[in-house]
Amino acid sequence: MRISLHRSRPFAALCAAGALALTLGACSSSGSAADSAAPAPSSPAAASPASPATVADGPFGAACAAVPKDGAGSFSGMAKDPVATAASNNPLLSTLVAAVKQAGLVDTLNSAQNITVFAPTNDAFAKLPKADLDAVLADKAKLTKILTYHVAPDRLSPTALAGKHPSLEGADLTVNGAGQDFTVNDGAKVLCGNVQTANATVYIVDTVLMPTS
Questions:
Q1: Helix-helix angle 140-148:130-138, to 10 degrees
Q2: Residue 12 pLDDT class (50, 70, 90 cuts)
């Protein structure tokens, strides 16, 4: 994939070395063979590149396999829509979408520019006791607080994801990890990351994040 910046020894130098045993004419005819027998010079370009598995150029994670291969809910389809609309087409996120609608945040999220959304799966919401989930869904102020805690005001690529980030709710989110292995607040695991929508980068997580304040 990389092209070495170092070439073999200049032809004249090779001929000079060959002249110790051969005539100049023999050097001219055998120079390429001698050059191919010599060990290749070491160079930074010849070193093995970092494994591509450590760099996420597109969506990554085991749960990405559950995303439709085509249509509005596919990765290419989601990239055309703003984030709340894109999430509504993803079968992993139907509970989140219902909560966003209940909180009246669809237009807020769709009109935001360059944000990052940590999107809990249906199974993440199912971890919550039903009574607690029902209570949150019935309390618009509390629901809004929780949902906005899942949104960072910057569009974070995988290389910029690790660290502390403010949320729209106000409290910080802390992401640990590297490459394609990340956790949020030391608990929520990124199941499918670096999903692009028209206005956001989405990291699908396995736990609902709760603000401390």
A1: 100
A2: very low
- For the segment 85-100, the average pLDDT, to the nearest whole number, is 96
**Cα–Cα distance between 61 and 181 in angstroms, integer?**
8
Pairing of strands 163-166, 200-205: unpaired
Question: What long-range pairs does 156-162 form, CB within 8 A, spacing at least 24?
Answer: 156/116, 156/201, 157/194, 157/201, 158/55, 158/56, 158/60, 158/182, 158/193, 158/194, 159/55, 161/193, 161/203
Evaluate if residue 14 carries a pLDDT over 90.
no
Torsional class of 177: left (φ above 0), alpha (ψ -120 to 50), beta (otherwise): left
Secondary structure letter of residue 163 according to DSSP:
E
3-state DSSP assignment of residue 168? coil
For the record, the structure tokens of 69 come out as 């291969």
- This prediction has a pTM of 0.74
| Residue reference for tokens 């394609």 | 180
